[in-house]
Each structure stands twice: as structure tokens, then as C-alpha cells.
Design brief:
By secondary structure, this protein is of the alpha/beta class. It has one domain: 5'-nuclease (Rossmann fold, 3-Layer(aba) Sandwich), CATH 3.40.50.1010. It is built from 9 helices and 5 strands. The longest helix is centred in the middle third of the chain and has 13 residues. It is globular and about 45 Å long.
Length: 165
């Protein structure tokens, strides 16, 4: 099991939910995912009564840890982000950790802060290159992300090409 820790915004975790065994292979890439409380609420509200119910449903154990984040700092572009994105960026910045984020405006703020970041499609590629998932599984995951509207056709084509290299 990997020991690396990463912070995540809501989007990449929603994408994981759409993939067959998404939470399974990501647990082989990372030892733990940290999320701010606003992201936990965005994930479970509407489908589950509590965060614990979400964790049980997705068989997460203690893989995802919720961290309370008081949003204090403001950064250029901050006002364009929702509370979950703000807290996730702030948590990654404070902890000096990489960030999973898919929204373009959030990526721009993360880049301006010097954070390392990726979307879930990049993690599929990382899992393939790390021999955690096969080429067929990686291709199926990318196709599922495309069908679910989580990535665009151009990125999909680029990632398929990257799988062949």
C-alpha cells in the first residue's frame, strides 16, 4: 500500500464513484486522502444521511480523513471558487501536499500558489504507469469518465495516446 497523502476536492471523488473499483485502485496509489469538511458535506449530502454512511457504502475504512479547515487566507481568483474548492486548496497549501482538483478556476488558483495538482484522469494514467491497473482497465476508466461528462473528448484522446507510449 502506498504511503503518499493527497488532498482532494469534491470533483475527483465524484469521478471515482463513477468508475468500476475507482476507490480500490486509488487506495493503491495513496495511503490516505485528506478532504476538508466542506468537501465531505458535498459528497454525502443528498445521497447519504452522514459522512460515515458514505464511507461504509464505498467501503473506505479510514482511507479518507476529514480535516476541519477555517478559511482565513484569500488568494487571487478566490471569489470564483466554491467553499469546497477553497478549503481543499487551502488544506493542500497549508500541508504542502498535492491536490486532486478538476475545475479549471481552482486549478488556476492552485497553479498560482505553486501547488502540484492533477485531475482524476491523470490518476488513471498514473495507476496504469505504476502497473496498478491494466491498459484495458485504464481505457475503460477513461471511457467511463468521458461518458459521465467528467473529461472532454480532446483530453480523452490525449490520454489514450499517452497510454500507448
Amino acid at each position: 500500500m502506498a504511503l503518499d497523502v493527497i488532498v482532494s476536492d469534491t470533483g475527483p471523488l465524484i469521478s471515482l464513484e463513477k468508475l468500476s473499483d475507482g476507490y480500490g485502485w486509488i487506495q493503491q496509489l495513496y495511503g490516505q486522502i485528506l478532504i476538508p469538511d466542506a468537501v465531505a458535506q458535498e459528497l454525502y449530502q443528498g445521497m447519504f444521511s452522514t459522512w460515515d454512511a458514505y464511507q461504509v457504502h464505498h467501503n473506505l475504512g479510514d482511507f479518507i480523513s476529514v480535516v476541519r479547515v477555517a478559511t482565513v487566507e484569500t488568494f487571487p481568483g478566490w471569489e470564483l471558487l466554491d467553499i469546497g474548492e477553497r478549503q481543499a486548496i487551502q488544506l493542500a497549501w497549508r500541508q504542502h501536499l498535492p491536490l486532486l482538483i478538476e475545475e479549471e478556476q481552482g486549478r488556476q488558483v492552485a497553479k498560482a500558489l505553486g501547488l502540484k495538482f492533477s485531475g482524476l484522469a491523470g490518476q488513471v494514467l498514473k495507476a496504469y504507469r505504476g502497473q496498478i491497473i491494466s491498459s484495458a482497465v485504464a481505457q475503460a476508466n477513461l471511457a467511463d469518465l468521458l461518458k459521465a461528462g467528467r473529461i472532454g473528448k480532446m483530453l480523452y484522446a490525449e490520454l489514450l495516446e499517452a497510454l500507448e507510449r
